[in-house]
Write a structure and sequence with these properties.
single chain, mainly alpha, three-stranded antiparallel β-sheet, about 65% helix, globular
């Protein structure tokens, strides 16, 4: 995260929210903007502690990855810290700007129709948001996989950025323990079965039962298996997805302030995040 990233973020915010939006960040110095951005996430939706907890976990996931990678390969750690605007070295199109923008736009679209009372609009916007979240996380996974290959002393290659989502998840699962490991949140955010169903249009809303119904093709048996999840579960994921853009930037801001800020700025960061950054890398 640097001043160019912040300028781009402000332009995107103005585009999404409109010129008439009262932007409280206007007029702030870049480093003050970063600090305010960090604290704003921890002030949001206080009545939903589970949401805040998941977002905080997402932030710490990126911070720990950076912290563990830096002493082993500073260049790879820097690539993660600058992943918003800068491609991974030698891998054109790997920066997360376009994927982040897609998720931001989809998130604002959900918020715009959330209280419309039109279930079709809400469901359509929610499906788009789920797809956009998956695309964003798939892009982030490329950086995360390389970092943890470095951390585990494994051979790493930028070719991971060209792999499918399933291939990235399989590699990351072996590196981190998957649903049973420290990075389980990533695996639970990405519902591959629902993602494929949305992509193939095999998903609909059962209003009478309050459930989302989607199909899964079982390749070995050439059969379709039906799945049902409560609408509230889907909406919970969509709500979390709508804040991931913010959580990603919070992580980048914390890294920037910790690495290049003075001691006064460091001490203004949330204490638990400061402790995460200050901890020694695992051996």
């Amino acid at each position: 995260m640097n001043e160019d990233d912040l300028r781009r973020l402000n332009l995107l915010r103005q585009t999404l929210l409109g010129k008439d939006h009262d932007d409280k960040y206007a007029g702030m110095q870049p480093r003050a903007q970063m600090l305010q951005f960090v604290w704003d996430m921890y002030d949001v939706e206080p009545e939903l502690p589970e949401l805040r907890g998941a977002l905080d976990q997402f932030v710490q996931m990126i911070l720990v990855t950076y912290r563990e990678t830096k002493p082993r390969n500073p260049d790879i750690a820097s690539a993660l810290a600058h992943s918003f605007m800068t491609d991974f070295p030698g891998t054109e199109g790997s920066r997360l700007l376009s994927r982040w923008s897609g998720l931001a736009e989809a998130s604002y679209a959900v918020k715009a129709v959330a209280h419309s009372g039109n279930s079709n609009l809400i469901f359509t916007a929610s499906k788009t948001a789920m797809q956009a979240m998956t695309e964003f996380l798939s892009g982030l996974l490329g950086f995360m996989v390389v970092c943890w290959q470095v951390n585990k002393g494994k051979f790493w290659s930028p070719t991971i950025f060209h792999k499918t989502l399933n291939e990235k998840l399989e590699v990351f699962e072996k590196l981190t323990g998957g649903n049973d490991g420290a990075f389980y949140l990533l695996f639970r955010l990405i519902d591959r079965r629902m993602r494929n169903a949305i992509a193939h249009g095999d998903i609909h809303l059962d209003r009478e039962r309050g459930e989302v119904v989607f199909g899964e093709m079982i390749a070995k048996k050439s059969t379709r298996k039906e799945h049902r999840v409560p609408v509230v579960e889907l909406m919970g994921r969509v709500m979390l997805a709508s804040y991931l853009c913010q959580a990603y930037f919070v992580a980048l801001c914390v890294i920037a302030l910790y690495e290049s800020g003075n001691s006064v700025e460091r001490l203004q960061l949330p204490e638990h995040l400061l402790k995460v950054m200050a901890s020694r890398a695992l051996s």
